[in-house]
Amino acid sequence: MNAKLNTITMNKFLIIIITFTLFSCGKKERTPQEKQTKIAKEVKKELNYNFDKIILLANIESLPTKKVHSIMQGYFKVMYNDDIAFEKDADYQDMINTISKNTGLSIKKVSSIIFAYVYEMRTKEEIGDEYIDKLEEEQEQYNEVYDPR
Questions:
Q1: Is residue 21 a part of any domain in this protein?
Q2: Please, what is the average pLDDT of the chain?
Q3: In this predicted model, what pLDDT tens digit does every residue of 107-144 receive, in sequence order?
Q4: Which residue range is the domain that position 126 belongs to?
Q5: Coil, strand, or helix at residue 63?
Q6: DSSP per-residue codes, 2-64
């Protein structure tokens, strides 16, 4: 009888733990304000971390640093927003058009600055990560050819 009571107690305890786990693991949906705050923090972190890129681009393009900062801020606000999906090229073009209007620069100039920042100007960490990835890929290829397993 005592063993049966312990089994029943353990089963109840297990059910309580499972129920608690299931209900406490529910993903809380963020409010639009919370999402915007998170995006703003991520954008600020990106731009602060890569301030040298902004200064260099401002000098290369003969623009005020604030103007380049504003362009990249507009770009990252959209790119860090998971609610925005670029379903067609027109959506991406709309983003560039909006940044162009907000900064008073041509679409060509805005596109050039975004392209340079994102694709041409790489940090030491990005170069290092790329090099490590290349070495790992070469090691995998080597292992495929020479590894007897």
A1: no
A2: 81
A3: 999 999 999 998 888 777 777 888 888 888 888 888 87
A4: 32-146
A5: coil
A6: HHHHHHHHHHHHHHHHHHHHHHHTPPPPPPHHHHHHHHHHHHHHHHHHTHHHHHHHHHHHT--
